[in-house]
Amino acid sequence: MNRRNFLRTSGALSLPALLSTGVAADPAGFFSQFINPDSDKVLVLIRLSGGNDGLNTLIGLDQLDKLSQVRGNIALSASDVIGLNDTTGLHGSMTGMKSLYDEGLLGAVQAVGYPNQNRSHFRSTDIWTSGSASDETETKGWLGRYLELEHAEFPAGYPNEEFPYPLAMTMGNVVSSTCQGSLSNLSVVVNNPFNFLYIAPGGNTSLPNGNYGTEVSYVRELIGQSNQYGAVVQEAANAGNTLAVNYTEGKLSDQLRNIATLIAGGLQTKIYVATLGGFDTHSEQVTGNNRLLGDHANLLTELSDSIKAFMDDLKLLGVDRRVMGLTFSEFGRRIRSNESSGSDHGDAGPLFLFGNCVQGGVMGQSPEIDTAVDQNTGVPFQYDFRDVYGSVLIDWFEVPEATVQTLFSSGFTYLPIANGCSRPLNIIVDAPAALGDEYFIDLDWQDHVLPRPQGFRLERSEDGRNFQIITRVPAKNSVTGYTFRDEKVRKNKLYYYRLQRENTDRTISTSGVQTGRLRGSSRGDWAVGLPRPNPVRDDGSYIKVYAPTDATAAWSVTDISGRKVRNGSISLLGGQDNRIPLRPAGLPNGTYVWQLITENGQRFSRKMLRQ
Amino acid sequence: MLISTLPAPAVVTSIAPYTGPWTRLQAGHLLRRATFAPLKAEIDQALSLGLDGAINKLFANVALPDLPVYYDYEDNPDAGIGNTWVDLPVSETNSNDDASARRRSLDGWWMASLATDQLTIREKMCFFWHNHFGIDGPGDARAIYQFITKYRAFATGDFRELVKQMAVNPSMLVFLNGNSNTRVNPNENFAREILELFTIGKGQQIGDGDYTNYTEQDVTELARAFTGWRVRGLNTQVAGLGPESYYTTNRHDTTEKQLSHRFNNAIIENNGENEYQDVVDLIFQQDEVSRFICRKLYRYFVYYKINDAVESDIIEPMAQALRGADYVIAPALKLLLRSEHFYEASVIGDIIKSPIDVAHSIYRPTDYLNQGSVRDDYQAARRAYLAARDMGLELRRPPSVSGWSAYYQGPGFHRLWLNTATLQTRTDVQNRALSRNGWYWDGARHPFDWLTTISRYDNPGDPNDLIAEMADEFVPQALKPTQLSALKELLLPGLQDFVWTSEYADLGANPNDEALRVSVEIRLKHMVEGMLQLAEFHVH
């Protein structure tokens, strides 16, 4: 552990306290000991605002038929999908990201979400940006909390000699809640880094002649002068440059190009947040019969082409090893499309990581589509978004896992998604698919590469880092598909698998990592939402319950005097949100408590109003 | 980086009554200048009253605010929380605590009462006179209350009579040493300021001790005329007494006072305890007094630059009206606020807000001063007072007898409210209003409720209407489309309009969903933050 990490994890020590012990004589020398040699690492977050339709973004090739049954008016056909591997493909517009994938510079994580998905744009964005649970109101952002580990006093005393640049930057007009700290937001908003002095909404719009224009102009000038980061950002923008010529004309390209310019210009900012809006595709997400035309295709084109151009640019600028990117969106969309050739607010969705140090490949399984699914159902989550965040902090910013545990309220599970810098580069097989059954996990993989290998060593890990060989599978001449059934697994654990391919030249190629767990294994914690709408209505009011595993639970409704007026029991599907109708008809007006009691005695009480 | 400032176009410098359209732009402008931080409903009212109706309303008599009361001090045996102290002696046992409790109360009360919802110009004039007479009030809250009440009583009334009464006001006598101005040891302090700052103003120095409008001789002679007045009852602990001034014959200089040619070599005969009134009458015989105060009113209500056209076309007719009304302020001020010049487009929004205007621009729309109990209302009002203080205007404590430099110091005038430090404190004040906790007192957080702010609007569920209605309250002139769309992006980053509509409606259907409330309010606060970041917010 270096000194800086030591400081991070020992909360009792503060820099001033250390300084007062006598090293203040040489503050510059003192601080230099604490600077992480890798502190030039940059994280670029791309927020897909509106709720990206993940089922039309990252597509299970074996689900195409079922998808066409439940979302016939928007579903992609096989020819509309670019295959990434044998099981998964990208929307046909995403050629740029496909080429990054092929270079091992793009990773995808399937079905990221959280228990008891909230479908309000605002609320779910707040959950994603704060890294909190669905029933928690955390006002600080997850990156704000991270930055405050080292900058607890911000904004007091900032900028300063050691940190003259913004700690984080949001591109556009709206400060990102991901960087909200306890006292202020730790990111600055940069719309145009070349003209960054007067940054109020709309910028330096033209003003009329005369007294009014004169005075407003005076105030703007003064505000510009007091922009503490103005000079340093403008200097970096002017010092930087950009070399890629394949940026688009779109809004995301504009932001990413500015980020590349600022990085190239020497700005030491660690975190940039970019936004691409318009993903709230309730209608006409595809236009006409060509499924590769329409709003969603345009958005994915902009996303994919911009990220590709950005990565190309970083490489040309020689800073590609310093940058990692992560996309997120407040929710995925529902499995069934609506009648307007659109899709409504849903639950989990895929996200992407890009950069030299991501683990390439696709983590997780394509969402299994049930063709009898009802109109309201979204994609259940496979991975908790906080595990993605925490894993990025661990592998990219070298935050100790114990510290990451404290940043997020729920338990944390490490995912090897951002550890690609330490991975062998010669990946020529995909990670095995890991399908959990009740008592075993089936590992399936394909190998089309010639010459055929001598065999595969299948490795397993229980922490995502330390792998052990569990079996060796000899190569076969006539088939490309392999399977292995891992029966030495227990419930309620996440297992990590990877392959070592024994090449004929005696070298070893290593695959990416895949995870698997037994069916019915707990995933997350129980989570019970609020009645909606509340005051409750006879029709339509419901409460959402997330059960980690298949379960039966008792429920009751109690009036204000404590008298139980309704009760019953319900069966809940595990690993997903269950929508429980409340049916309050017949209850007199008043305040009630709706209570759920799980089989192991956990109780959740929610206030219910009847008016 | 900034637009070049082109020469100002010809401004209509006509005092003739404005006859153009009467829209929210003009109605809002009138109220922003005549009151502190008008709300939408008040602008609605002024709009429907029309120009003349609105002016008449602003100048009509309204009841005085409720008396200031104790809100956090329980040790005065004669008055508890919610009872006034204005007629009570300071308690004997804890006189210091009691005195400072009264000042705390007074500060909050004054700050709150400036922002009355009675649609009156009186409060803006109350502050005008506070700045004009510049009394620094560190002492007895009752004495301060007296002069505040005086300013209110004479808000747009008889200027000459106000000057007379202030000449022997207990706080003034202490402030400018009238208290120690005696026959034997005359003190010129008040005599100098009444000429230089309160009535006729110091003209150019055109000779030794000759300031065009008066001379050093006049200062000396006037000082002798003001002798004899003293103060008693300040900080008194005796029941039935309070701060008052009184005349002592043997301190008064009974000899003749010979004024200079600037006052036509007038001689002031001894007139004992009424002599100060004779002096004021004599000063007010000079027409320059009317021009002096009209210029100050002009700078306060219109703009700080006075060119020749303004001097001849605006100040002069105002001054005539003032003299015509025997120095009653209202007619001249009405003339100004009704004039074509006042509604000239380039005048609308050309004054940089004072810290009180800024504080109330935030505290009024959020209804922050109505917390629901006397104690909390005062606590909140005191926070507004502290906010203004931090931004550079400490009510009750003008930095000098000249008042605040923004009202007299050229060439910057109102611009002097702003520098990089006070801009930062303005940002701090805004940030606090947008923070989750607002202010803390009595162990509880007291956030600003921006959802209540927008619930007053006609159509808060429509993001375009919401922003337009808020801009109508927060900035003086229409914003540019790029500004409006940038504000909307703050409310709805990457989202379409209907998302706000549906989320706002969803909150309406689930009023107890605290998490949703927080989420909706965060978006709103982002937008408000953008609104407050606009340079346009700082002018009115």
List the helices and strands and how they pair.
The complex is a heterodimer of chains A (611) and B (540).
Chain A: H1 3-9, H2 15-19, H3 27-32, E1 42-48, E2 58-60, H4 64-70, E3 81-83, E4 88-91, H5 95-102, E5 106-113, H6 121-130, H7 142-150, E6 168-171, E7 187-190, H8 211-225, H9 230-239, H10 251-264, E8 271-276, H11 295-317, E9 323-329, E10 349-355, E11 361-363, E12 383-384, H12 385-396, H13 401-407, E13 433-436, E14 441-446, E15 455-461, E16 467-474, E17 481-486, E18 495-502, E19 508-510, E20 514-516, E21 527-528, E22 542-547, E23 551-558, E24 564-572, E25 576-581, E26 590-597, E27 603-610
Helix pairs in contact in A: 5-11, 9-10, 10-11, 12-13
Chain B: H1 24-34, H2 40-59, H3 95-114, H4 122-133, H5 141-153, H6 159-167, H7 170-175, H8 189-199, H9 216-225, E1 229-232, E2 244-247, E3 257-258, E4 267-268, H10 275-284, H11 288-301, H12 308-324, H13 329-337, H14 355-363, H15 374-390, H16 420-434, E5 439-441, E6 444-446, H17 450-455, H18 463-474, H19 481-491, H20 497-509, H21 514-533
Antiparallel strand pairs in B: 1-2, 3-4, 5-6
Helix pairs in contact in B: 1-2, 3-5, 3-15, 4-5, 6-10, 8-9, 11-12, 11-13, 12-13, 14-15, 14-16, 16-21, 18-19, 18-21, 19-21
Detailed description of the structure:
The complex is a heterodimer of chains A (611) and B (540). Chain A is α+β, with helices and mostly antiparallel strands and 611 residues long. Chain A has four domains: 1-24 and 31-37, no CATH class; 40-196 and 229-422, Alkaline Phosphatase, subunit A, CATH 3.40.720; 433-516, Immunoglobulins (Immunoglobulin-like, Sandwich); 527-610, Immunoglobulin-like (Sandwich), CATH 2.60.40. Helix content of chain A is 22%, strand content 25%. Chain A has 13 helices and 27 strands. Chain A has helices at 3-9, 15-19, 27-32, 64-70, 95-102, 121-130, 142-150, 211-225, 230-239, 251-264, 295-317, 385-396, 401-407, and strands at residues 42-48, 58-60, 81-83, 88-91, 106-113, 168-171, 187-190, 271-276, 323-329, 349-355, 361-363, 383-384, 433-436, 441-446, 455-461, 467-474, 481-486, 495-502, 508-510, 514-516, 527-528, 542-547, 551-558, 564-572, 576-581, 590-597, 603-610. In chain A, the strands form six sheets. In chain A, strands 1, 5, 6, 7, 8, 9, 10, 11 and 12 form a nine-stranded mixed sheet that branches. In chain A, helix 9 packs across helix 10, helix 10 (251-264) runs parallel beside helix 11 and helix 12 (385-396) packs antiparallel against helix 13 (401-407). The longest helix of chain A is centred in the middle third of the chain and has 23 residues, at 295-317. Chain B is mostly helical. Among the domains of chain B are: 158-284, no CATH class; 452-538, no CATH class. Chain B has 21 helices and six strands. Chain B has helices spanning 24-34, 40-59, 95-114, 122-133, 141-153, 159-167, 170-175, 189-199, 216-225, 275-284, 288-301, 308-324, 329-337, 355-363, 374-390, 420-434, 450-455, 463-474, 481-491, 497-509, 514-533; strands spanning 229-232, 244-247, 257-258, 267-268, 439-441, 444-446. A two-stranded antiparallel sheet of chain B has the order 1-2. A two-stranded antiparallel sheet of chain B has the order 3-4. In chain B, strands 5-6 form a two-stranded antiparallel sheet. In chain B, strand 3 (257-258) and strand 4 (267-268) form a beta hairpin. In chain B, helix 14 runs parallel beside helix 16 (420-434).
